[in-house]
Design a protein that fits this description.
Blueprint: H1 3-55, H2 66-71, H3 82-91, H4 97-111, H5 129-147, H6 150-164, H7 175-190, H8 197-217, H9 236-252, H10 259-276, H11 286-308, H12 316-327, H13 356-366, H14 369-380, H15 391-395
Helix pairs in contact: 1-8, 5-6, 5-7, 7-8, 7-9, 8-9, 9-10, 9-11, 12-13, 13-14
Amino acid sequence: MSRKGKKSISIMKVSFLLVILISVTIILYYKVSKMIYQKQWEEYQKELYQNSLKYGKDLKFKEVPEPLSKLNGTHPRLYLTNERIQELRTLIKGPLKELWLREKSWIDEEWLDKRPSNVYYYDPKEMLWQRRVGNMIPHYAFCYLMTQNETYLQKAKEWIFTALNYETWGPYPDLAKAHLLYGISLAYDWLYYNFTPQEREMIRNRLAAEARIMFLASIETEEYKTMWWHDDYLQNHLWENMCGLAAAGFALYGEVPDAEIWINQANIKFNKVLDSLGSDGASHEGVPYWSYGMEYLLKYLDLARQLLGQDLFNNSWLKNTAYYRLYLTLPQAFWKEGMSCVDFADSPRRDNYGPSYHLRKLAAEYNNTYAQWLAEALEKAGLSEPKASWLNLLWYDPSVPATPPTDLPTMKHFNNMD
């Protein structure tokens, strides 16, 4: 072989060795970095736990509410129990059939082939795309509970474990974190026995860490920044965030020592919300943010009734708020996609969430036949946002008839808005 050929082979060998060396260095760097990050995360979790106990020492139950005590150690317990699931499986073949087929068709046709990456969009300021991840998880879990179809279970798991791998749930404690807390807490509870012990531990640890961050942001501390929404009782952010915190507390109660702290913190906040609301049902935030906040207010109130034995629905604002949505509804002749209500404040002419299932809940609670009519009219027109439409199956009361508002006065003055 010529000297030139031998030199080329030597260069190739050196290059090959360099590539191997660089590759090994990158792999070692990645592994070491991951180990360091994992250690830092574990230390941070311990710090969060200690401070949750420290600042929540006065928020422990003096006496555990009887419903929560009875359900301690059992799953599911958030909205659903095994008995309720069996009942619903029968009802979706009867009076709830139409609502169930709408829900199932929406999931099958629009979301069964979607992945969490499909809802991503560039939003470093708030990371609000994570809300959709949190929203979708209960849909898949609910469909699995109704059908026992493994496809839905695997979709729920796919979205959950993708979210567990997010470095942060939102850039700070607010809406993105709230939605993930709520959605994953429900799935953890509903699908508890469909996870392996290792999977449950992974979910539990992340939920607990994120709930502690949310809790510490909702109070005044020396170590953590208190978020602006912590005492803004008429602003939707507080409602979403405390509902997410409560869901995590209820799901992890009996497994995580400070879960009762989060439950009681949320309960205190929501009682102040109800005390702060006016009497006529109006919202200064406009219809779209009314529907957003209403969703999480109703979600919480239902959990409080079931698990704390507190009936907080005896409230004038809640009794009248369906009329607020009704009177701000545009004439049906003008309804079209993205336009069904009057806009004011920083609101478009559509609901951000629902409102069909909100209105059905209000109809059921207060025998409001007009709310029942509006729920069905908006849904049939395709103008209800199905962000949590599985709630239709839980909140619809077929014994409440639907009455069109033809006998109501044309105008209504909501004087709390003056």
